Amino acid sequence: xxxxxxxxxxxxxxxxxxxxxxxxxxxxxxxxxxxxxxxxxxxxxxxxxxxxxxxxxxxxxxxxxxxxxxxxxxxxxxxxxxxxxxxxxxxxxxxxxxxxxxxxxxxxxxxxxxxxxxxxxxxxxxxxxxxxxxxxxxxxxxxxxxxxxxxxxxxxxxxxxxxxxxxxxxxxxxxxxxxxxxxxxxxxxxxxxxxxxxxxxxxxxxxxxxxxxxxxxxxxxxxxxxxxxxxxxxxxxxxxxxxxxxxxxxxxxxxxxxxxxxxxxxxxxxxxxxxxxxxxxxxxxxxxxxxxxxxxxxxxxxxxxxxxxxxxxxxxxxxxxxxxxxxxxxxxxxxxxxxxxxxxxxxxxxxxxxxxxxxxxxxxxxxxxxxxxxxxxxxxxxxxxxxxxxxxxxxxxxxxxxxxxxxxxxxxxxxxxxxxx
Length: 421
Hints:
Layout: H1 16-32, E1 36-37, E2 43-45, H2 46-52, H3 58-63, E3 65-68, E4 74-77, H4 82-91, E5 101-110, E6 122-131, H5 136-153, E7 159-164, H6 171-182, H7 191-199, H8 210-213, H9 226-241, E8 246-248, E9 262-267, E10 276-282, H10 286-289, E11 297-303, H11 304-313, E12 327-331, H12 336-349, E13 354-356, H13 363-372, E14 377-381, H14 383-388, E15 390-395, E16 401-405, H15 409-414
Parallel strand pairs: 1-5, 7-8, 12-13, 12-14
Antiparallel strand pairs: 2-4, 3-4, 5-6, 6-11, 7-9, 9-10, 10-11, 14-15, 15-16
Helix pairs in contact: 1-5, 5-9
């Protein structure tokens, strides 16, 4: 017997409605903020991620699914969404139109890492990318999208954590300060962090090892240049004015090298150690790094598996139900099956979800099936019903019955009290 590969998961019919619920919330939020959908390939040339994500990140060093195709080209399943969108923006000259360019996507991403709650080797992200605006207002707009999305889902215990990781002008000074701080503490660092000191000191702050996290390195906000400090202050002021709760967290650097300036996370500790439900920030240098024109950009990614855990922990999916048929028509006797198939087609053409028997079951078995799939109404169609062209519809919840003429069948389900939402 075959089983799914480690770190992957089937979304079964009994669970998929929860995903549709979240995806519909994504599309509703996207419409509110005039975000247009973009879809990029599931795999790209490996060089895109080496240049965009960064050669010193865990994603590139440890987690990418990389292989040579039949022509010997190095191909990588996308480990995150932003680099592919940046490539598409450059390749298709998307910033040549009206700015800002506001986009969203729902996409699978692939990372070879230890499977854990809310994070699989194939997981899914809702992401937003905004190009062409380098202002505090745009930074806050992106965080407002996140908050609006979470509010729409009913999440009340998510808090924003923000930081600034500086720019090309001030970050080198901070990196030097980090090297000086850690230089006499290498014995207490994990193997990865001992390498990061020389390759990318900022990654030291992103380490999850408890021994590394117990240290208290200098804060980057003490090394920001004037422009970065002013921007950080403006973002905090706007967040306060818009009544968006936030906390400053000097250890947020994000795990991708393309970030500069403002970075943020939205967290919920109740789902365990993996508390980050959303992560994002600004990446003004990414387009230029990938060979395009210098273009300011900011965005975020939300892991849908982790979000699903959060919604379930809050009981916010308890009232969400899968689509259920409005009516089940049970054929009994000669010719009834054809009549039921015809009626079901009529109802479906009118936008009414309807079912009938296609297995040749007894009436008792049909009624059990109708009950299992949650039909609101049932009707038995036999010789008398076909002769009189009148059907007796039974409400499966109230047990009330309605006699409905054949010509009035579609209109019966147009009534508000009989609709299935």
